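Hi V.,

You were right to ask for the full record rather than a summary. Here it is.
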Amino acid sequence: MNVEILAPAGGEETARIAASCGADAIYLGLDRFSARSAAENFGLDALKRTAEFCHLLGTKVYVCLNTLVKDNETEAFFDCAKEAYRCGADAILMQDIFLGRALKRRFPEITLHLSTQAGCCNEWGAKLAKECGFSRVVLARETPISEIKKISKILETEVFVQGALCASFSGQCYFSSFAGNNSGNRGRCKQPCRKKYSIDRKGFEEFAYALSPCDLALKTRVKELVDAGAVSLKIEGRLRGSEYAAAAIKYYRAALGGQEAAKSFSDLMRAYNRGDYTFGLGFGQKSFLSRKVQGHIGEKIGSLQADGFCKSDHIPDPKDGFKILRGGKEVSGAVFDQAKKARAGGFYLAANEKLKAGDEVRLTKDASLPQRVFCEKKRDVTLDIRIVPNERAKIAAGGFVYFGEPFEKAQKNPLSKEELTACFEKTDGLPFSVHFQNIELENVFAPKSLLNKLRRDFFEAYKNSLLPARPPLAERSVPPFPSREKADGRKTAIISNKAEAGADILIVKPDDYADIPDVKGFAGEKYLYLPAFFTGNDLALAEPSLKNFDGIYCEGSFGLLLAREKGLKYFAGTGNNLTNRVAVEGALSLGTAYFALSKEISAKEQDELSFSGAFVLKAGAIKVMDLCFCPFERTCKDCDKRGTYRLTDEAGRRFPLRRYRAFGDSCRFEVYNCMPLSGGGTEAGALIDRSVVLDTPPTGGHTKRSML
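Predicted structure:
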């Protein structure tokens, strides 16, 4: 089986370098609907140029339109996807599974990949993706090998192997949105997870990077992913530079062959390294936080002596950059001190902070890195050229033949073979390596302008002949939305241990899934809360309890297929991120009984989607992160096993941190916003979240909407 190395491209230069360095595919974002709005990104002209360049080298181009789409943006989204296809996109990456279903129905020719933001981590999510027209899923980073094997039998799987890890489960992070009014689901994440926090548990009171994971690096374990059926190995990093993309491609090409390739991994560390790496949750690594240091720390190359001398075999360059760590924490940046006389075994560093003997020296910018990792892959082109007086010029490359305008007979200074070959060795930026086989050149007069035009016209025509053919888009008609009644204003409550007075529907969210509360006495409908990260092993433990409920409430769209399979009703939770009419209609048409609208859209936008069965989070706590790991790094022996902690930032804001026992023996955690919700008077039914008890806020201390 051919396995794809998939590289990030934040801009046009990086895209070309990644293709030239041997990436099988690249992924990039457009100016709109990209989950990395801070990247350079691409306009349509740049996308067309990039797709042509990549396709000439056999590299595919995947376009990320993977943000949430508001109701008044859906037509613009469809137009954007259509234009991306016409510019050469081999696939469109999307987060909204139901919007993707509608796109596929309108334009069946477009290939769809489901973004990791959709949180696919089990076979039910994969089956739903396939039913909605997706041919590939980009799996949640937490997905274990056992689930990858099952999912890979349903449709293609793309798995992250290198790069940054989100603290929250994919698609379930609203921290940046509610704490800073910048939605990660709209590509504007400000990474509050990378800030310092203290936690009110003994040993964790000191401010640290309490939620910040190390970077992922699977190294040669990628072979296990291949054995599990993964078809694409994805390198994260559209916000990182071209040296990083090139180094990662080079390393994982070697790793696929089972080689550790220490030198290549050294280059990758120097290109970007946050926290010295982890295998991640998917491979069972429970402790993977970078609590002491944040950002790029490069590779350790030596340590300091008392006079600032770095004992190292690295040969420094004036353009190199260094970081100094002491006790695992960053002390200062540093530069090569050229003023001090060199001596054997190392070099001197200069820094703004006082350096101490024993300090660790990390190389974070290696000036020689580009020349080691950059490649220049080109496509061989062998030309036969015939130019004789008063006949159309003929240029052949393989089976392709091009005829240009005739040239006149030369009276003096005829065109030489050297001039002709020198002209055609220029490829106008195309990735061709030109060779000459037969040249038939007679006494012709060839002004430089005409010869250059012949070359440009030939290469343009030849390029177009090599580009992969694709069927033209023929837009299919879309039936109008059905008329729907407005919501009836019922009340739903998410509870962990006791019923909510006046609730019509109860959603039971246990503190311990091994001890699910008995709510048989409740007269209304009862739903069991299932988290977004849910595996086949979890179902085996949860299934005996399902008979006590009318249905399941789930934060991931996989719940729809699971409920259908078990003959239960499905309540789509806020984590389904329903933000537009197309998605709502898709969810309802596939069997959703009730749905909670996105907690990031405004009250007015929610009103426009408040049909029968709609609910809106109107009161209580606002969950902003789902953590599938222990922020205490599995210090179980000393754990006080409290249900709720306080995560405090350096501004003094306190965010509830809820611990619960998931299926099996593992603890998981949720982060809630520092203030309760003031939801307003939308027409939809009220959803109240009683998962945690919040601190009493100061006067006026409530969270408003309109984050998206």
